[in-house]
Amino acid sequence: MHPKPKSAPPAPATLPPLPAHLQASVDAAVIKGVEAALAARPNNPQGPIVTNVRDLQLDLTKDSRQAHLNAALGLKMKQAYLKQAKHFGRGNDEAFQKLDAFLTRVKAAGQFAGIFESGGAFTRETVTSEIVELARPNSILLGAGIRTISGYGARLTMGTIDEGVKVYWVAEGEPGTPSTVKDGSLVLTAHKLMALARISNDLLRLSAIDAAAIIGGDMAAAIGLEIDITGFKGKGPKRPNGIRHQMEQAARTASAGTTAANKVADTDGAMGSVAKAQIPGGLKANKGFYYSSTDTFLALRQTRDSAGWLFPDLRSGENPTLNGFPFHYSETLADDGVLGFGLANQLILGEAMPLETAMGENGTDFSADMVTMRGITEVDFLLRYRKAFAEKTGVAY
Length: 397
Hints:
InterPro entries: Phage_capsid, Phage_capsid-like_C. It comes from Corallococcus soli. This is Phage major capsid protein. With 397 residues, the chain is α+β, with helices and mostly antiparallel strands. 32% of the residues lie in helices and 20% in strands. A hairpin with a 2-residue loop joins strand 7 and strand 8 (308-309).
């Protein structure tokens, strides 16, 4: 027999209502709790809405310090362009009104606040010593870490040629032996550097921060190239004297030849010449570096012997080194036939005045719908020790 199924338990009886005075107290407490919770909620309970949408006017495609520096210079050039348009009564043209509104919006956004005056105009010294940072990616000298001094005006006396700190043992009360001036003073002067760039009106009127970065980048690249050309081989009086016209001429010696053994002799010889000068601080602390043309670098990089690569550390694509020192190369040196070694800390780039920008029209600019932008600064180069650089000449590899 199957057991008799149990019957379901009876449903619970409905609770009796609370007395009126107790129900009123419960309702009041619930309402008070809900109101407190609502008061504590933020105005937007969902929180801020975050999107990845770019502001095509103000956002840089490549957000980096270099891009910001290029954009700052480009904004200065756009401001000069707008100022010229207003001067000739074209400021109310639709294109220039859009550019004016764009520059106003850039200022309001604050990302380039440091380049505006309180009145809204660009400061006169917008770029100042940042020209060094602007030009650095395009210059092997700046990339090697040469020293820079800014804002010294027309002349700055640094000391005496080849005279460093002198250290003596002296008796109590006895003065140290004074240094002897050998070949005159080390002086930074000012040589005017002008960069000209023909730019289309369409690009200058375009209200976008990327357009400003393109314009500024072009100007920075041109200045960086000229810094290297003059820094290595400039000769006065209009241009500053570069390394080759300040260094010890006896430190420029002929290449040993093109064999693997010759290449080792050249690379060791250039470095050894500077090492023997015993410049205070030594090679590493003074940021020693090798330099050559691109072809010479590639020839050294590809040299092999029976044991493999002769200079394996040159195989690094991004940071090639030789004998433990950075190796910089450039087409600036393409026709020079040199392999050099130098101490970056002993070469000074002086920037006597900030970079200033202006604009005008030259030749066929009007018919081509272009303008010529001009950047002007004043610079000089100074090599503190003549033996801080050495070169192998007549290099045929």
